[in-house]
Design goal:
The structure is a single chain. This protein is of the alpha/beta class. The protein folds into two domains: 7-234, Ribonuclease Z/Hydroxyacylglutathione hydrolase-like (Metallo-beta-lactamase, Chain A, 4-Layer Sandwich); 240-380, 3-Layer(aba) Sandwich (Rossmann fold), CATH 3.40.50. Helix content is 34%, strand content 24%. It has twelve helices and 22 strands. The protein has helices at 53-64, 79-82, 85-91, 101-111, 177-189, 193-203, 223-234, 253-267, 282-291, 308-319, 339-346, 368-380, and strands at residues 7-9, 12-14, 19-20, 24-25, 30-32, 35-37, 43-45, 71-73, 96-99, 119-121, 127-129, 134-139, 149-153, 158-160, 210-212, 240-248, 272-276, 292-302, 305-306, 325-332, 353-355, 360-362. Strands 16, 17, 18, 19, 20, 21 and 22 form a seven-stranded mixed β-sheet that branches. Strands 1-6-7-8-9-10 form a six-stranded mixed β-sheet. It starts with 6 loop residues before the first strand and ends with a helix.
């Protein structure tokens, strides 16, 4: 598949994976992207997951035709992109591998060699000429590994963006790009907003017409939309006003309180989503919490703490730097309700969290008093 006259797609689809990185549910599979740039010299952009080495090499041979590759550019050393570096270097013994110094350290760890006699070590601002195509290397540490760089082709004005601007799903999956890119970003890159902002600042100086990520489709239209979303995500800003209700319930009494609030919010014209943390896709619930401006955490008190799924969820938020939001609590307890206090303590280190004035306390089951508390909270969250 041609991306431009000189750039050919050589990536692969993975329809068998059920959990990406061992934790993210991917019903639409995944793709591991690789590209070939053909010019006076030929460059291959990254490899693919170990399980797809044969398929990738076959696609590579087809793309190369009678040409031999001169360079393998390694933007990112995570195994779903670097696992076939060794096979490539054996297949093409005249090729040179191009990467950052940290990437070569990782190659030594992964493969037992850093290709010291067949390598070019590049730093931020370095370039490599293929002929018409001039490759410019931009380091992007901790987006989301320390060795990462992105590569800009100034001839076709293409940014090879490593894991940035990626998404879950096979290359041609027809799911919503924003939803799956958000879930991917928040889950995998979300902790590193400062570093993503630094990369966006560098990228702003480039004339980019197309983005070729290592996951998901090539982006060529409406790039401003995608870059604007990344800017919001990196600054931990809500995309839109609305409320996410995340609840953890044992015997459905906390669930009933959460659902009653949800119904009242909808009746008030408030955009809202609700998640049962014991049964939902935790990554989807986490992404939703970052999407909207307000969050309600509803948990039963459990062993003087919160229910385990709620603790897991809050850990997901804090690990990814959750901030700049309004948070409210619903707690339940039959003799000593402390869930609200525990949840607030877990969020203590997060920046710019505004807590709702109204906290709902349910004692065993909803009654007239606790329903009035829910009315007051629904009014506050309008």
């Amino acid at each position: 598949m041609k991306i431009t006259d000189d750039i050919i797609y050589t990536g692969v689809d993975d329809n068998e994976v059920d959990l990406f990185e061992g934790q993210y549910i991917v019903p639409a599979g995944m793709c591991y992207n690789s590209y070939v740039i053909k010019d006076e010299k030929t460059a291959v952009m990254d490899t693919v997951d170990e399980n797809f080495g044969d398929e990738w090499l076959e696609k590579l041979r087809a793309a190369l035709g009678s040409d031999e590759p001169d360079y393998l550019i390694v933007d990112h050393m995570e195994s779903d992109h670097s696992a076939n570096v060794g096979r490539f270097m054996k297949e093409y013994p005249e090729a040179t591998v191009v990467a950052t110094a940290k990437a070569f350290t990782m190659m030594k760890q992964f493969f037992g060699t850093d290709y010291s006699d067949r390598r070019i070590v590049v730093s931020d601002g370095d370039s490599l000429s293929l002929g018409r195509h001039e490759l410019h290397f931009v380091t992007a540490p901790m987006v989301h590994w320390p060795e990462v760089m992105v590569t800009y082709d100034s001839f076709d004005k293409v940014l090879f963006s490593a894991d940035a601007f990626g998404k879950f799903g096979t290359y041609g999956s027809e799911d919503n790009w924003v939803d799956e890119a958000r879930r991917y970003y928040i889950g995998i890159v979300g902790k590193y907003g400062v570093q993503v902002s630094a990369l966006l600042k560098k990228a702003a100086a480039l004339d980019i017409k197309m983005i070729c990520p290592l996951h998901g489709p090539v982006l060529g239209n409406d790039l401003g939309k995608y870059i604007s979303l990344y800017d919001k995500w990196a600054r931990y800003e809500a995309e839109e006003d609305g409320v996410v209700i995340a609840y953890a319930s044992v015997y459905k009494n906390t669930e009933k309180a959460a659902k009653l609030l949800y119904e009242k919010l909808l009746k008030n014209g408030v955009k809202a989503e609700i998640y049962d943390l014991a049964r939902c896709d935790m990554a989807k619930a986490t992404a939703a919490a970052f999407r909207y401006s307000k969050l309600v955490l509803a948990s039963t008190t459990y062993n003087g703490d919160v229910f385990p799924f709620m603790r897991f969820f809050i850990d997901h938020l804090t690990e990814r730097g959750y901030k700049n939001r309004t948070v409210a609590f619903i707690e339940n307890g039959s003799w000593a309700p402390v869930a609200a206090k525990v949840m607030a303590k877990m969020l203590e280190g997060q920046k710019d969290i505004t807590y709702a004035e109204n906290t709902v306390t349910v004692r065993s089951a909803l009654n007239e008093e606790s329903e009035k508390m829910i009315d007051a909270l629904a009014e506050e969250l309008k």
